């Protein structure tokens, strides 16, 4: 086994708190992801997902309400937009979001699960999604997200063995949701050349969809209070360490009445803290590459792994 | 019908009685064990350091592996920092394979005085006895290369006779009693001390999505405020009873920043009380074997 492929995607140890640096001597990075996906399962966004009460609420009420809240608090977010949703909203609406200081990133063609796709099929879908977004925005997006759907068996998002390599080849500057660290890190696709995708952290404990269930009812997962406590506790911990706090928001979930008010309370407290660097995905990626280029900062150790009969390879 | 059911019931009752007889409590019911220096309670802080290994074994997808990788990149180091800040000697239950994936973290754990114990070679016990022996031996050798000696404890379902032959003093899984207890195997041939842990004191029960195939509506992902109060309550009860607590952490779960803060708060609270004995599982096991030998 070359390196630790199939087990790890990056080097053995994260950057220590004391070694982290944010622009202008800021203390902690604040990253907000707004997921405009409406897919319920790995099949991706279909007609039913776009023509029900949830779709209408999310796009017509939740989204403007959430944008209004972010604007009032002076906060900027990265919007993860499936290409089909870009077609629904149209270029003017997307550019309107960008004009508020937010970034528009890609979130698949239809937010579908690509893990079983042939490489060429996945390459074609990435190209198609990129073209659609570029057509609306005037330039291709720099970031790609594969965020989880609520009904996924795992809450980390789905990719294929080819995804990172294809995204690098397609010119993407960063991948938006990795779980191996709580700060940006490199997802290595080739040990020898240090070919790597810069990956921003994601964790489902800070993603509203796993705590809020509008309008799916009766599943026992309406725990808005737990979500708010998670956000507060993680922010406090990361702010003290000088690291990175992120949250993932779905307008169809968090945009609903009392939940949006809860978010406003949390974000108001957070935004009050001095020394925050509230940045979008591209800004974070740029800072990271400049400060810790993969070529010089990755500490990949050769594998000492050995194959044994009766053991995993 | 009753005639055919009766023998079954008798057989069930026999099996249950034999099962109960295999468990020998450390002290008689209602009594408290004698802990060193008159301590009120023994606390084992344990970490199951499987990182992504179990996810890999179960053929889970890439993001699940990355979730586990957090434990090796970040979580284990934070736990070591936390244990050092509180001067808590911990036990790291380590699959042998982790010695090849995260040797530096394990060396740091040993240098800080923590115990490395067996957690299977690749987080499972093979059915084939010869392969099981092979795995047990490989893990022992791998841990020895890091720690300088073979492990004396395991958290596994390894066969008791193989554990006994390999010199193990204790196991730590299942919760058939509040206190450590002697567990004799079904053949009645080998007895091992068990340091029990309760799943209500296992971080993975509260912070994991997709816990071993559970359905999405069954997820119990909760927050640290709630878990802090639950675990504090469990500690207070055992403290009052003069008992034992075994806390199970996973670096990829409890290594998250907010959970490190929660553990910091929990340990800080515990230390406000006198007579709390924080020790490695090995220290507790050796004390139990010496002070409360199997009668």
Overview of this structure, please?
The complex is a heterodimer of chains A (313) and B (295). Chain A is an alpha/beta fold. Chain A has a single domain (24-297), classed as TIM Barrel. Helix content of chain A is 38%, strand content 14%. Chain A is built from eleven helices and nine strands. In chain A, strands 1, 2, 3, 8 and 9 form a five-stranded parallel β-sheet that branches. A four-stranded mixed β-sheet of chain A has the order 4-5-7-6. In chain A, helix 6 (163-169) links the parallel strand 4 and strand 5. In chain A, helix 2 packs parallel to helix 9, helix 3 (83-89) packs parallel to helix 5 (119-137) and helix 4 packs across helix 5. The longest helix of chain A has 21 residues, at 53-73. The mean pLDDT of chain A is 94. By secondary structure, chain B is of the alpha/beta class. Chain B has one domain (38-291): TIM Barrel (Alpha-Beta Barrel), CATH 3.20.20.370. Chain B has helices at 2-21, 53-57, 62-86, 98-101, 103-111, 129-147, 160-165, 204-207, 224-241, 251-254, 257-270, 281-291, and strands at residues 23-25, 41-48, 91-94, 115-118, 153-154, 170-171, 181-184, 191-194, 244-249, 276-279. In chain B, the strands form two sheets. Chain B has a five-stranded mixed β-sheet with strand order 1-7-8-6-5. In chain B, helix 7 links the parallel strand 5 (153-154) and strand 6 (170-171). In chain B, helix 3 (62-86) packs parallel to helix 11 and helix 9 (224-241) runs parallel beside helix 11 (257-270). The model of chain B has no long low-confidence stretch (mean pLDDT 94). At the A-B interface, helix 7 of A face helix 2, helix 3, helix 5, helix 6 and helix 9 of B.
Task: Outline the secondary-structure elements.
The complex is a heterodimer of chains A (313) and B (295).
Chain A: E1 28-35, H1 47-50, H2 53-73, E2 78-81, H3 83-89, H4 91-99, E3 103-106, H5 119-137, E4 143-144, H6 163-169, E5 174-178, E6 185-190, E7 195-201, H7 224-241, E8 244-249, H8 251-254, H9 257-271, E9 276-278, H10 281-291, H11 294-297
Parallel strand pairs in A: 1-2, 1-8, 1-9, 2-3, 4-5, 5-7
Antiparallel strand pairs in A: 6-7
Helix pairs in contact in A: 2-9, 3-5, 4-5, 7-9
Chain B: H1 2-21, E1 23-25, E2 41-48, H2 53-57, H3 62-86, E3 91-94, H4 98-101, H5 103-111, E4 115-118, H6 129-147, E5 153-154, H7 160-165, E6 170-171, E7 181-184, E8 191-194, H8 204-207, H9 224-241, E9 244-249, H10 251-254, H11 257-270, E10 276-279, H12 281-291
Helix pairs in contact in B: 3-11, 9-11
